[in-house]
Design goal:
The structure is a single chain. With 455 residues, this protein is mainly alpha-helical. The protein has 22 helices and two strands. The protein has one domain. Strands 1-2 form a two-stranded antiparallel ribbon. The longest helix has 26 residues.
Length: 455
């Protein structure tokens, strides 16, 4: 409670971070020229114009789009003879209020009311800012439970400015990751509150949030492991945890019901258009559980998480500090991280197509803040030279991230074909090497899809 009352530094930091991000995004204007509703966003977004504008969730209207449509809709045939988007409808649900405002503006004559004109893209950008604010808000509340106000402010700033989270707000706000980041932060706050005092209201919201997490991105369901391991300090406390859960079965039943309620529209839709309650919409794409690419996912020059977000090297000494000082945080963070890395990098396309850094790791920052906070807390008690070295390191990580974001927007930092030679040639410069095409290393998508080496 003391930290919350004195949390002015972290609160001011939060507002400044959101203001800077809004200014940055406004200057980049990703909504211009229909650049925003593109790539995977097309499949996340298609639900909204289908339901709101064309009143046709079977997507028959795709055959007769108006001349001024200005967008794309990707659907695939289902076993029942219909067509459906590849992505689930979770992100569309989070966008709905913003889409509604955009549609009203477009219908009033501001732009063509097709679902793909400028107001709709602006709506997505505003949604990303809104959910970023909420994500940082709940992250701050959680950090203040364990760290000082200053450390909480620094960690919040680093998570935005020194990682690829910011890129997916200002440049590609239609991708799922900032929304999953918000849901993770909210979920962890609710988990913390629930284990402190189980309550009907908390159980309900916990279930809703868990359902949305999975509906937005099903693989993110691994965060439930963090909920189970929250505040576990030993094997004995883990055994006691199961007895506590059995005594709270009514609250758990409510949470499960709330999670299921979120999924009911999706399940009903799949049953109608595919003939199955649970329909796998990704076709040939899948996981290779016996051949995960964890080392590549972390350290490759193509897309390595620790290469393009070097701030996260600090989580390893941070985990050691948590193990020694805050075991109740170490267990959920370490347990989640191991499982998330395994699931994430078992996907056939472990580099996840075109992306700045390893984008499926963005939502994990809601948990990685704890080892980061442990490192900063430890450093605050050390000698001046240690603090100085750490400060210079953090400034460098922040600068490097912001500079590489700029490189990525111009494709100098290639979206899927980086190599060590290419990285070395472009490091610290915005000039194109003469032999750039010879330096990059394009992956073989067809080979990877079959589970073979991509090169």
């Amino acid at each position: 409670m003391t930290n919350h009352r004195k949390g002015r530094i972290s609160l001011i930091t939060l507002w400044l971070l959101v203001a800077v991000t809004a200014w940055y995004g406004k200057n980049l204007a990703p909504w211009e020229d229909n650049r925003l509703i593109n790539h995977d966003v097309v499949s996340y977004y298609a639900w909204l114009p289908a339901a709101w504008i064309y009143q046709d969730v079977y997507f028959d209207f795709v055959q007769s789009l108006p001349p001024d449509f200005g967008g794309r809709i990707w659907v695939h045939p289902t076993p029942a003879g219909y067509h459906a988007p590849k992505m689930t409808m979770g992100l569309a649900l989070l966008w709905t209020p913003f889409f509604a405002v955009a549609h009203l503006a477009a219908s009033a004559g501001m732009a063509p009311a097709t679902g793909y004109s400028t107001p709709y893209a602006v709506g997505i950008f505003m949604a990303a800012l809104f959910y970023l604010f909420l994500g940082l808000w709940f992250l701050r509340k959680l950090l203040l439970e364990f760290f000082s106000d200053t450390v909480s402010a620094l960690v919040t700033g680093l998570v935005l400015l020194a990682t690829n989270l910011m890129y997916y707000v200002v440049s590609e706000p239609g991708m799922s990751h900032v929304y999953s980041f918000f849901l993770f932060a909210l979920f962890l706050w609710l988990v913390h509150c629930w284990w402190d005092r189980p309550a009907w209201e908390t159980s309900f919201y916990l279930g809703l949030t868990a359902g949305l997490i999975v509906l937005v991105r099903p693989a993110n369901g691994v965060v439930l492991v963090a909920a189970l391991l929250w505040n576990i300090r030993s094997i004995r406390s883990l055994k006691e945890r199961f007895s506590v859960l059995s005594s709270q079965w009514q609250h758990l039943l409510l949470a499960a019901g709330a999670a299921l309620a979120v999924w009911i529209p999706q399940l009903l839709y799949w049953k109608v258009v595919a003939g199955e309650w649970l329909y796998y919409s990704y076709g040939e794409e899948g996981f290779f559980w016996l051949n995960p690419h964890i080392v590549k996912g972390l350290l490759s020059w193509r897309k390595g998480w620790l290469i393009y977000t070097p701030l996260m090297w600090l989580i390893f000494p941070g985990l050691v500090l948590l193990y020694r000082k805050q075991r109740g945080l170490f267990t959920p963070v370490a347990g989640f991280l191991v499982l998330h890395l395994y699931v994430t990098f078992s996907w056939w396309c472990w580099w996840y197509g075109g992306s700045y850094g390893s984008r499926p790791m963005i939502e994990t920052y809601a948990l990685m803040v704890f080892p980061l906070g442990a490192v900063l807390t430890w450093a605050s008690r050390q000698k001046v030279w240690i603090k100085t070295v750490l400060v210079f390191g953090l400034v460098f990580f922040t600068w490097l991230n912001q500079f590489q974001m700029r490189q990525y927007r111009t494709s100098l930092l290639h979206w899927d074909s980086m190599s060590f030679q290419a990285y070395r040639a472009i490091f610290g410069t915005l000039q194109w090497p003469e032999n750039y095409e010879e330096l990059i290393d394009p992956p073989d998508y067809d080979s990877a899809l079959k589970g073979f080496p991509e090169k």
